[in-house]
């Protein structure tokens, strides 16, 4: 199941920046969080996106149905 839609929400430089994601059918919702932006081991948005989209085992650890509310009205 490819994840085709991503949304980033965060606050200021150095703050935690959660990466919310969902599939286009709106049946799978999840989030990747880091305490601080510099704690992101993937370094780039492209690397994180690629990992979420292509690694189903990794993606399963991030699923969170409660994040569905982030997508209301979008």
Outline of the structure:
This protein is α+β, with helices and mostly antiparallel strands.
Sequence-ordered SSE layout with sheet pairings:
Elements: E1 5-8, E2 19-22, E3 29-32, H1 45-54, H2 56-60
Antiparallel strand pairs: 1-2, 2-3
What does this structure look like?
With 74 residues, the protein is of the alpha+beta class. The protein has one domain. It is 20% helix and 16% strand. It is built from two helices and three strands, in the order E-E-E-H-H. It has helices at residues 45-54, 56-60, and strands spanning 5-8, 19-22, 29-32. It has a three-stranded antiparallel β-sheet with strand order 1-2-3, with no helix packed on it. Strand 2 and strand 3 (29-32) form a beta hairpin. The radius of gyration is 12 Å and the shape is globular.
Features:
about 70 residues, alpha+beta, 3-stranded antiparallel β-sheet, 2 helices, 3 strands, about 15% strand, globular
**First-to-last CA distance:** 21 Å
Please state the oligomeric state of the protein chains shown: single chain
Overall number of domains = 1
User: What overall geometry do the principal axes of the alpha carbons give?
Assistant: globular
* Biggest β-sheet: strands ordered side by side in the sheet: 1-2-3
- Report the total helices: 2
Radius of gyration: 12 Å
Number of strands: 3
The fraction of residues assigned to DSSP E strands is 15-25%
* Stretches with pLDDT under 50, minimum 5 residues: none
Determine the mean pLDDT.
78
What is the SS-derived class? alpha+beta
Most strands sheet: 3 strands, antiparallel
- Share in helix: 10-25%
Order of helices and strands: EEEHH
């Amino acid at each position: 199941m490819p994840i085709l839609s991503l949304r980033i929400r965060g606050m200021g430089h150095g703050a935690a920046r959660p990466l919310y994601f969902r599939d286009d059918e709106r049946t799978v919702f999840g989030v990747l969080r880091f305490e601080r932006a510099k704690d992101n081991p993937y370094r780039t948005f492209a690397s994180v996106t690629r990992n979420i989209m292509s690694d189903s085992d990794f993606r399963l650890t991030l699923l969170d149905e409660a994040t569905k509310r982030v997508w209301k009205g979008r």
